[in-house]
Every structure is written in C-alpha cells, then in structure tokens.
Amino acid sequence: MGNRIKGRTKKKSIKAAIHSGSSQQQKLSRMGKVRKRHHAGLDATFIGRAKVLKKLQISLRDFRRLCILKGVYPRQPKKAPKNKKGQVFYHIKDVKALAHEPLLDKFREFRAFMKKVRRSANRHEKDEARRKEPLAPKYTLHHLVRERYPRFADALGDLDDALCLIHLFACLPSDGKIKSGITRKAQQLAASWGAYCSVTGSVTKSFISVKGVYLEADIMTSGQAVPVRWVTPHNFTQHIPEGVDFRVMLTFFEFYETLLGFVLFKLYGEMGVRYPLPTVASGGGGESNVSSATLHPTLGGKATSVLAANLSALQLALNDAAKGNSAADAVKDAMQSNDGNNDDGNDASDEVNRKAVRAQKKKQRELMQSIDEALKGVEEDGDDNEDDDDDDDFVDEDEDQVPIAAPLREALEAIDDSATSINENGNIVITSPDAQKRHQLFHNMTFFLSREVPRGYLELIILSYGGKVGWEGQDSPILMDDSSITHHVVDRPKLLPSYGALPKSREYIQPQWVLDSANFNFILPVQKYGVGHELPPHLSPWVDDNEEGYVPKYKEEIEKIRNGEMLDENEADNVDSGA
After folding, report:
1. Residue 224 to residues 250, 269, 432: CA-CA distances in angstroms?
2. pLDDT at 150 over 70
C-alpha cells in the first residue's frame, strides 16, 4: 500500500473515471449531451424510400406518381454512410409534406375502388364492374399548380418542359399505351398556344435541327418579357421505343396539362377572350369538348390545320371582345357611367337586343353593382381634389371610401395603360412595341405552302410575323392560283410542270428562307433560297458570336446588305447565282 501521510486525503485509483467526482453541469460541458437516435444527424434529415413507403402506406407506383405531381425528388446526402451506399434518400420535410397531401387520400380511395372492381370481375359479374366504372374517385391538380407556382412568372419559367412534352404527345400515334383522347388533348393545347403566339407576335427565334424545330417566344408579364423555348418534333411517323416508361410520361402530361391550362387562361384573359375557346357542335349532333373542326382527319376531324382552326376561333372571340363583350370593357363602361342608368330606347328591336345582352351578362351585372359603388368613391375623390372648400364631414366620409376605390382605380389604370393595338380587322390584341415591329415583317406578304412542306411550325412563324398563309387543301383560305400570293414555299428538287400555269408574280422559295428572314428580322434576298439551289448555312439565333470569337461569313454578308453596303464581287456573284 505504501506509506501514507497522516491528515492528507487518499489519492483516487488510476482506474477511476476522471469525471467521477464532477457535477452534472461539468460533465455536460466537458463530454456533451448524449444524442437520441433519429433526432440529429443523417437519420433526422433524410429517410430511405422503403421507410417512406411504410410510413405513407402506399405502393411504389403511387409514390412515384405523387412525387412527380408534388415536385419532390430524391436527395443525395453529402456524407452518406458506407453501409447505405446506393440507397435512395428523401428529405424528411418532403415526406411530411406528402403525408398531408389530399391526393394521398384519393389514391387510397381509388385503390379500394379497384379492389371492388376486381372482385366483381373475378366473379364474372361484368355488368356490375361496368356499372361501377362511372363511380371511380376523381381529383384535380389545381391546388398543386397554385402551390408550386404562386406567381405567374414562376409558371412561365417552368413552361419549357410542359410545351416540349405536349408537342411530343401531339405527334405520337394513338395505340395501346397512348389513348386517342390524350393525343387529341395535346393537339388542342399545342394549337391554343400557337394561336396565342401568332396573334400577339410573340415568336422571336426559330431553328431547325435534327431533333426538331426549336422555337422561342417572349411572353409579356408585369411589363417584362419572359422567354419561353420549346421543341416541336418533325412531322414524321413516330415509332414508340420499348424501353420508355409511358406511365411516368403520362403522369408528367397530367400535371403539365393543368399547368398550361392555367397559363392559357391568364394569357387569353389579358386579351379579353375567355379560355377555353367555344367549341363547335360535333358531327354527331352533340356538344363535344374538343371541336371536330380542330382535329386531324386521322382523329375523326375535318380540318387539315389544327392551328388555323384554333386561330379562326380566337379571331372570332377577339371580334366579340372588340364589340364590347369582354370583362375589361364592362369595367370601363362602369367607370364611365355616373349612376349606372341605361338610356331607354323606343324601338322594339333595341329592347330585344337589350334583353339578350342582359341574359348573357347576368353574372357581370351582379359584379357591376359592387363596382358602381366603388366607382362613385373614385368620382367623389376626383371632385374632392378640385374643390378645396369642402366640409369636414364630407372629407371624413370620402376617406372611409378610399380603401374600396383605390385598388379598383389601380386595376383600371393597369387596363388602360396596357399595350393594346388594333389591327386591320378591328381586333384588340395585347402586344409590346417589339412584337408590333416583328408583326410588320411579313405584313403585305401572302405565302402558299405546297403539300410536301411541313405546315406546323411554318404556319406559326408566318402568322406570328404578320403574313398570310394558305396550303393545298379544301379548308385553305387561299387558293393556289390566287394572284395575291407573293411567296410559294416548295421543298422539291425542281418545280412541277403544273406550276407553269400559275401567276408569274410569285417567288418560289425553300422553307429555310422563312426562318432566316424571321431570325434576322429582315427580308433576305430570295436568290440563294430558290428551288433546287444549295442553301446557305442555317445559323442558330442563340449563338453569341462575341463569346465564340467567330462571325460566320454569311452573317457578315447579311449585315452588309442590311446596312446598305456594297458587296465584294465574289459575294455579289454568289448572291446573283444563288450558290
């Protein structure tokens, strides 16, 4: 034991812990707090997919579908444990958001419903299974669009993928994997988008590539132009590959269909047109959600141009808006009317027309009652600014009405200050100064497309830049032998002998001339784009020559022609010969 000195405390054993005599606070400051499991670190932030399925109690198929609709994607931790390599992780906050999603209950209801249908089918009760089909649970995705895109600019920023997928489905054949209704709906959405871009002159850039035709449009929102770019596939017979999971693509299409519907409703509403456009009665005598006049003959329709049919419907709606049937005009009329009293006519025909207008605007008149009260506050506010000797009681009463009238006045000023223009037909179209300038490029030109020319993107570009277009077909607004045709678009090695009987006042060009002239915003010489000539290089409008450090020779020639400079002899010979 060794010698001990009397009166001195015994030393602790070496085996004893250093902190054995420390207090609780000293231990906590020195050693730290013991962490509970699943409360910190990787387990508290991320969760594996198997645990997510167990927690949500749904199948893997429904979970993938729910993640696509909600915009939830897997996360990769910075420091993943070695024993969990290759595992799919999701953030715990995303999982909590999925747990409170209303669609989750709908998926569970649909799963229970399908059990009943399968039970009837296994019992060979086919009539009972068919009877239950209309009783299937239904849901909408409107709340998801409002949740993911709180602002309209956010929706426009994510519209590229939506347009690419919708134009892809519009070109796919309808077979067992893709139903005809989906193809029809995709064609209708693509045509509605093209009709808006062509009327407002929004298309700014275009380029033909192997994958398809790239297009870009500037959409005006809050005084700013938001570029939207998409790809239109070539109009060829599409062969569906075997390795593509169309269930995932159809889920994306389901969400993008709702998103594009919201965007088109907003854009058409700014023009004073209600979206969707009014449908035409189908050939069977009943009302159809999709007009037969806007479908291709392979889908049971009558029109050969979906875009032109939707454009004609949009023009009719714009004519109605120009006559004063839009909501914006109704608000302006309410501002101009002092007491909301209408002049009584003596003619019986005027009385009948007035009754018809009242029947059509029943809902609008209910809204006008509240608007008239607010507008009175606006008028009184204006009179108050002119007269400085009003009583205090009147001033106090007017101040009580300002919170109601001020927001309405701001909305009316926004309507009046919006960039509006009236075209030759008297249609009111919301455009920007740049769009008006682009719309004048093909203003006095009429194009005719031969049957071998793809009409989809050419029709959109020509109409967007102010031109008129016709094609070989019964529903073409312009005939082939029309003397007003200035450019005949042909994609053949040489002209047909029958073209010799046509008027000599037109120019025969290849389709690339339309895109190049639109990209440069300049009418190019047609010598290089003649039928049978070797075409000049098709330059991409998205390439920045300053960053690349190289300016193509053909672009230099176009700049010289635009600036009125003299070309070299070799350049002039190339232009004249079309080489």
Report:
1. 33, 18, 10
2. yes
